[in-house]
Write a structure and sequence with these properties.
67% of the residues lie in helices and 2% in strands.
Length: 448
């Protein structure tokens, strides 16, 4: 076909086009030597990070609706301050302690590149920028100590609480995260397939639950408990918070696959199934016993299902998710119902839901692991093989270690906080409420 432009014009267009494309070609050439970034996985990890962060205000609302009006803001601050305090600690040294290479005989990790995140500016791991992984894991570190606040609600000083979560994050959370999730962590490599804890059944929920029990026993009961009725001030707020937790949990579990594919879809699906199973089971229990289904019971059952599937979402199939959700709901209901007889004041049932429910999930998952995971693990294990019983033993080991570290360290931390800045608020401040005595505000503009 004959050209309508002279040769000189074609030459000019060719030169200018090359000049226009040159920066892009240079960028492509420069990127060729860099690790490839999976844009789909990166987008999902960034979304998951936001979803997990959403769980913190969700938790704040869930807890705040369950306390008395005079403690609404103080209770919410227990969750929200963790975003700022632990968020900074994670960047300074937390990530280095949790995901650095073994030091001190493997008790903890460390890597100078991770101190203040000074050496990861161009780092890519598993197809995603390491910054995305750091921030995702940072959200886990933030919500873990915030869960414990449910056990000490309405009776602690704010500065004592801040010191408590600082020490707990450093000496409980970071070591456990290193043992369970770091590539050279000893629980990560235990037995044929390592301890199974996809998203923090041990690292977050069992540890927080056990610590909550220790704190509740150490601080003692709230003034007037259990003789004085302490009704929730706003169940609507609690249900909204529960809904935010449910939504955020998809990022919590599915994001923990650190990918965007089949494993991600499996984890998300198992999360939904277990939550629904737990909620439905609790509603049925109340309907049988009381002939009524309470909103609090629905929210509690939902949480029981979610904490049970947290360690297991990456390995079980739907039938396992249904069983774990239902079993957790039943056992958590029994434990919480027995709390008055046991005589401790775990104000908002952190131990009864998170510690018990997730601990149950950590163990029961051994009997519902999908065949493909078992086959892959058996091949890795070689002649030693794999069995549900051997995996159960590893899971028991993980729970035992978690309970021991959380219980002992938390007791020591409680003593340190009490002896330094003080932990429990004085009687006058407790009577007035956290909002007025510690923050100089009222959640609703009046006191009940």
């Amino acid at each position: 076909m004959k050209s309508f432009l002279p040769k000189s014009a074609w030459a000019f267009l060719s030169i200018t086009s090359f000049i226009g494309l040159a920066p892009g070609l240079a960028h492509a050439a420069g990127a060729a030597g860099s690790p490839a970034i999976d844009s789909g996985a990166t987008a999902w990890m960034l979304t998951s990070t936001a979803l997990v962060l959403l769980m913190v205000p969700g938790l704040a609302m869930f807890y705040a609706g369950l306390v008395r009006t005079k403690n609404v803001l103080g209770t919410m601050m227990h969750s929200l301050i963790s975003i700022a305090l632990v968020g900074i600690l994670w960047v300074i040294f937390g990530y280095a302690l949790a995901f650095g290479k073994n030091v001190l005989g493997g008790f903890i990790g460390w890597d100078n590149r991770y101190f203040l995140l000074s050496g990861i500016d161009s780092s890519v791991i598993n197809g995603i920028p390491e910054y995305a992984f750091v921030m995702f894991q940072g959200m886990f570190a933030i919500i873990a100590p915030a869960l414990i606040s449910g056990a000490l609600a309405e009776r602690v000083s704010f500065r004592g609480y801040c010191l408590f979560i600082t020490l707990w994050f450093t000496f409980v959370y970071c070591p456990l995260a290193h043992w369970v999730w770091a590539p050279d962590g000893w629980l990560f490599n235990a037995g044929a397939g390592g301890v199974i804890d996809l998203a923090g059944g041990l690292v977050i929920h069992v540890s927080a639950g056990i610590s909550a029990l220790v704190v509740a026993l150490f601080l003692g009961k709230r003034a007037g408990y259990p003789k004085t009725t302490m009704q929730p001030n706003n169940m609507v707020m609690t249900l909204i918070g529960a809904g935010l937790l449910w939504v955020g949990w998809f990022g919590f579990n599915a994001g923990s696959t650190v990918s965007c594919g089949l494993d991600t879809a499996r984890a998300l699906a198992m999360t939904q199934i277990a939550a629904a199973s737990g909620a439905l089971t609790w509603v049925i229990i109340e309907a049988i016993i009381f002939e009524k289904a309470t909103a609090l019971g629905f929210a509690s059952g939902m949480l029981a299902g979610l904490v049970a599937i947290t360690p297991a979402a990456g390995v079980v199939q739907p039938v396992g998710a249904i069983v774990l959700g239902a079993a957790s709901s039943i056992v958590c209901y029994l434990v919480i119902s027995s709390k008055p007889k046991l005589g401790f004041d775990d104000s908002l049932d952190c131990f009864g839901i998170h510690g018990v429910g997730s601990g149950l999930g950590v163990l029961l998952l051994s009997f519902f692991i999908r065949d493909s995971w078992m086959a892959n693990t058996s091949m890795k294990a070689g002649a030693n093989g794999w069995s549900a019983i051997s995996q159960l033993g590893i899971q028991f080991l993980g729970i035992g270690v978690t309970i021991a570290l959380a219980a002992v360290a938390t007791l020591v931390i409680c003593i340190v906080v009490t002896k330094t800045v003080g932990f429990r608020i004085d009687a006058e401040g407790e009577q007035a409420g956290l909002d007025q005595s510690l923050h100089g505000e009222h959640g609703y503009g009046f006191i009940l």
